[in-house]
């Protein structure tokens, strides 16, 4: 990709989240590369289910201040137990968690832990999407937009980013869903830019095994 395909406009420098990590050696390299957010998937049905590879103690010993746990329709008790034992700093709710659930979780969770609410974009109208976004804002810290799917996430499929120009986005947000080196230059069509890009399956050799060369290329593209 050539220099003029950089996605950044002016001084826009999104943070980077690399999700679906399972290998300690790769995690150490990503820490050294100063990746902003490390994502761990605590969803058993995912091919990137972290507990098939690492235990909670190993995750807790990873020295990083932005460890994100991705949960799909998990119970509050389990989320809290994993968060404490793995030393997570962010909870990403990637399933069909209701507002009541998030309020309850917020009350029981250590107040320093930030909540990222995922909005999966499918066939909903702009109005429906807007309503979902503005509900329950006081209990969450970030939004994350991903492509809707039966697998909940990790499909490598993008949604039409133009829809982000048709809604009000009241919180900083993560952009995810099939972000790749091939489509990243199209980010400039978005008016309110993402706080962080969230990359996953398009930067892998196999599920959970990241392609560090591609990630280095991404860093060169988005970090000035
Ligand atoms: O990656 C998974 O297997 C996964 C499973 C269930 C929920 C979320 C999952 N990953 C999240 O999906 C998005 C987008 O990933 P991709 O770039 O489309 O592969 C990302 O936020 C991951 O956190």
Automatic annotation (TrEMBL):
<protein>
    <recommendedName>
        <fullName>N-(5'-phosphoribosyl)anthranilate isomerase</fullName>
        <ecNumber>5.3.1.24</ecNumber>
    </recommendedName>
</protein>
<dbReference type="InterPro" id="IPR013785">
    <property type="entry name" value="Aldolase_TIM"/>
</dbReference>
<comment type="pathway">
    <text>Amino-acid biosynthesis; L-tryptophan biosynthesis; L-tryptophan from chorismate: step 3/5.</text>
</comment>
<keyword id="KW-0413">Isomerase</keyword>
<dbReference type="Pfam" id="PF00697">
    <property type="entry name" value="PRAI"/>
</dbReference>
<keyword id="KW-0057">Aromatic amino acid biosynthesis</keyword>
<dbReference type="InterPro" id="IPR044643">
    <property type="entry name" value="TrpF_fam"/>
</dbReference>
<dbReference type="GO" id="GO:0016853">
    <property type="term" value="F:isomerase activity"/>
</dbReference>
<dbReference type="InterPro" id="IPR001240">
    <property type="entry name" value="PRAI_dom"/>
</dbReference>
<comment type="similarity">
    <text>Belongs to the TrpF family.</text>
</comment>
<keyword id="KW-0028">Amino-acid biosynthesis</keyword>
<dbReference type="InterPro" id="IPR011060">
    <property type="entry name" value="RibuloseP-bd_barrel"/>
</dbReference>
<feature type="domain" description="N-(5'phosphoribosyl) anthranilate isomerase (PRAI)">
    <location>
        <begin position="17"/>
        <end position="220"/>
    </location>
</feature>
<keyword id="KW-0822">Tryptophan biosynthesis</keyword>
């Amino acid at each position: 990709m050539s220099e003029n395909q950089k996605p950044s406009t002016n001084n826009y420098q999104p943070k980077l989240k690399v999700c679906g990590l399972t290998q300690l050696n790769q995690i150490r390299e990503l820490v050294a590369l100063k990746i902003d957010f490390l994502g761990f998937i605590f969803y058993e049905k995912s091919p990137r289910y972290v507990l098939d590879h690492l235990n909670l103690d190993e995750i807790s010993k990873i020295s990083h201040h932005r460890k994100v746990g991705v949960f799909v329709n998990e119970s509050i008790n389990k989320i809290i137990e994993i968060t404490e034992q793995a030393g997570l700093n962010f909870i990403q709710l990637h399933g069909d968690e209701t507002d009541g659930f998030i309020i309850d979780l917020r009350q029981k969770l250590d107040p320093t832990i930030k909540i990222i609410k995922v909005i999966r974009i499918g066939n909903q109208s702009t109005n429906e999407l807007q309503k979902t976004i503005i509900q329950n804002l006081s209990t969450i810290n970030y939004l994350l937009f991903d492509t809707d799917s039966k697998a909940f996430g990790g499909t490598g499929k993008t949604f039409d980013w133009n829809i982000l120009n048709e809604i009000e986005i009241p919180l900083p947000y993560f952009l995810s869903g099939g972000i790749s080196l091939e489509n990243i230059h199209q980010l400039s069509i978005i008016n309110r830019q993402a706080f962080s890009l969230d990359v996953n399956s398009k930067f892998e050799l196999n599920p959970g095994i990241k392609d560090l060369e591609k990630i280095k290329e991404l860093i060169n593209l988005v970090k000035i």
